[in-house]
Amino acid sequence: MRGGAPSINDATPLGAVLDADLPDQLAALEALVDAISAADHQEERDRHTGRDLGEASVRVHRACARLDGKRYQWLNAEESEGIWAASEFRPRTFASHVAHTHGISYRKARQSVRLAHQLRDDLPEFGRALRSGSIGPDQVDALASTALTSPARIAALSEHVSVEAESDRDDPGGEDAPGTEDGPDSGGPDSTSSPELDEETSGDQLTVEQYLLGQAQQLRPDQVRHLGRHFARVADPDADERGYQQAKEREYVEFVRTLDGWHLSGFLTEESGRLLRTALDAVQVPPSEADMRSGEQRRAQALADIAHVLLDRGLVGTNASVRPHVGVLINPEEMERLVQRAEMTESPPAPTGGQQWRRLLQNSPPTWADGTGPVPESALRRLASCGDVYRILFSPESEVLNHGRAYRTFTAAQRRARVARDQGCTWPGCTAPPSMSESHHARVHWADGGGTDVSNGALLCYHHHNVVDDRGVTMTRTGGVWIFTRSDGSVINTDRFPAYECNGLPVGVG
Question: Which of 164, 171, 360, 375 is most buried (CB neighbours < 10 A)?
Fold first, then answer.
């Protein structure tokens, strides 16, 4: 049967298959895979228990892992031969060839080729253990991705560990190394140590790779990753510092305007990233049951909340003549319209007559302080009611004649009173603290003529302030509780919270 064409059939004995040439063995393997894959699942469930089928899944997984170890050897052989470069596909790299022939992504192919090189050149003991089934592919990948990160670390794997000098083989790295009491996670039938490690009892020396292999066979993949990092730190501590400095040089943040907003992208070091993530987590409050935003949307709001806190509380720019702020330029007529009577919730009347058109076109629309815009109506409405307002008079030649002092729509004393009463965002179920909340003209909006007093004010977090303004939600106060009502008359409080009677009216517990 050796050297001939594949001739596997139903009558071929198992011993003949085991002794067959590689093409015959592959034909037998494919025939066996066809038989297993085509089996009727309901018949399998009738003949076997769920536990039996679960064990079958484990055995197939282990067999596939061992075959992957063999496949890496074959990839190395194909690459070294070089014929792949002259194939019809004309690949630019061997990874491209593997991606094309295997039908996988280029990223997956590149990872496979890299791991094949590492098992051949740097981790031969791990390669043998993977093919024998005494270690799993995830453990191999965890060790390779953490331990092979510098030439000094790779060279250290071939050094010898004196068995007599090691008093505790279960603790290779002190208190930072993971324990081994959890038992094996993935491996062969019995997950026993490799033959090379058995020589320890006779006083022979082990290489560092063999020593790490003995530990990795008893650990979960996450523990192997921790072990690999510990080895890397011991073998070449300067590499971590070099990597950190290189990462700092690559650190950047791009924040540019786009057609409908701002695009944010960048790269941060581990330290800076954790610092920012900690700050984002600190300002994010547990979402209310009605909050349907995704995690990404909530993080975007948290980033804006950080800017709110820094600027609103004057925590930055204390040495500047003017504290940093977000400014809006608005003409007097537009400001008068906001103060006297808002038309933001209604469509503005169409201009009639040439004079009205001329007057409207001569008055520039509200813009941001840098001249870009126009400012969205909802943002203008919110900023006008919550921010500082400055009056600046210009001459016909655009010279500044007078600039008045700022005045706030709500005073500091009024805010302190609302904080004592509301104790945070008043939206049902929201837990945002007062430091993350803005003052809102609740019963009657400021632009609609609402009074700037404590009874007409309520605290809303930045997100729910936008929700109330954008969706036309009205607020009333009954029995010491703020009631939120949609434009269709339905009460938001009772959607997610049990209602109780207060003075004959249903009130949601918020």
Answer: 375
Same domain, 53 and 177: yes
User: How far is Cα 90 from Cα 87, in angstroms, rounded to an integer?
Assistant: 5
Bridge partners (DSSP) of residue 388 are 408
Chain mean position to CA 196: 42
- Residue 456 sits in the same domain as residue 334: no
CB atoms within 10 A of CB 256: 8
Nearest to 110 by CA among 126, 93, 130, 123: 93
| Of the candidates 455, 470, 466, 384, the residue with the CA atom closest to the CA atom of residue 425 | 466
Element (H, E) at 252: strand 252-257
Number of helices and strands in the chain (H, E): 21, 16
145 in the same domain as 236: yes
- In sequence order, what E strands does 118-217 have? 160-161, 206-207
Residues 266 and 237 in one domain: no
Which pair of structure tokens corresponds to residue 140? 């191999």
Range of the domain at 432: 412-508
Mean pLDDT score, 342-357: 50
**Whether 127 and 98 share a structural domain:** yes
* The model's pTM: 0.51
- Does residue 133 contact residue 189 with C-beta atoms inside 8 Å? yes
Q: Do residue 274 and residue 333 come from a single domain?
A: no
Same domain, 59 and 109: yes
- Count of domains observed in the chain: 4
Are the C-beta atoms of 211 and 143 separated by less than 8 Å? Answer: no
Round to whole Å and give the CA distance between 425 and 418: 10
In angstroms, rounded to a whole number, what is the distance separating the alpha carbons of residues 206 and 208?
A: 6
What mean pLDDT comes out for the span 333-341? 58
* Span 96-109, average pLDDT: 94
Asked if 400 and 416 sit in the same domain, the reply is no
Q: Is 158 exposed, middle or buried (0-12, 13-18, 19+ CB in 10 A)?
A: exposed
Contact call for residues 401 and 393 (beta carbons, < 8 A): yes
